[in-house]
Amino acid sequence: MATVSHDHAAHTGPDHRRRLAVAFAITTAVLVAEALGAVLTGSLALLVDTAHMLTDAGGLLLALVAASLTLRPPSARRTWGFRRAEVLAALAQSAVLLVVGVYVLVEGVRRLLEPPQVPSTALLVFGIVGLVGNVASLLVLVGRRADSLNLRAAFLEVVNDALGSVGVIVAAVVVATTGWQRADAVAGLVIGVLILPRALRILAETTNVLLESTPPGLDLGEVRAALLAVEHVEAVHDMHASLIASGLPTLSAHVVVTDGCFRDGHAPQILDALQRCVAERFAVPVEHSTFQLEPAGHAAHEPGSHG
User: Fold this and answer.
1) How far apart are CA 136 and CA 249, in angstroms?
2) What domains can you pick out in the chain, each with its CATH number?
3) Where are the alpha helices (DSSP H) in the chain?
4) CA geometry: angle at 286 spanning 280 and 287, to 5°?
5) pTM assigned to the model
6) pLDDT tens column, 144-158
7) Could you say which of 134, 191, 235, 303 has the lowest number of CB atoms within 10 Å?
8) In what order do the strands lie in the sheet containing 233-245?
9) C-alpha of 245 from chain center
């Protein structure tokens, strides 16, 4: 079996702990302020937004823990280290976002039917405080949010908070200027509608990673054709591709080569060509690939092919 060897320690991923720690600290500070405001004013809207903040602070803490785990080196028991901790964290966060979004929709409908009395001035003050904190957190995370599923989910947690704060501010202004108490419920429904698609998208992406689906953007038909075009390659079978974590796609395949390559020592050159092919020719470069080179007669000794 010919394997392209890599040092897994090189795949620990970028360190996002500082960004996540700053975002978590800001979110926690805003959480404390809004909780105090909810107690002082008795505002249901602020209480609900505080609950959102508590959920999101927990999500950021989870993301921070996952980011720390992904930097731990691989071991004999965990050959990829804890790289998939970021996927599990993103899955948990997206699930929480989904629950929060559904809750907001249900609560919004309830308030439309029975609108509570909302203290508009207090809502406006604490809504502005929350928005300022959320914008600060977004500025910390926005530059690297595409680096990992974990960071993207954390970014969406803060976006969720910011939307909540905007909703509180808008509701406060409408109630103060028109006296229409149902404005709070309408704002909540809008927030819920904006939250759910984002939560579902992250949930789908993380589920695909855990199911070891082919990495997005990588066409296995094109990969197979490119491998078959390598000189001396006769067939390709049992090809599998998956995503270990963000930025770490892997690919394996059985490659049938002409029998003479094993006698004249040409096999290593073919292996190099196969590795260069998947690492350089596609929009999604695969730097960690494993190829089993085999003669045509070897198929008779295998229990079965898997595509």
Assistant:
1) 33
2) 2-210 (1.20.1510.10), 220-301 (3.30.70.1350)
3) 17-41, 44-70, 85-113, 120-141, 149-178, 183-210, 220-228, 260-263, 267-280
4) 90
5) 0.69
6) 666 666 677 778 778
7) 303
8) 2-3, 288-294, 248-257, 233-245
9) 9
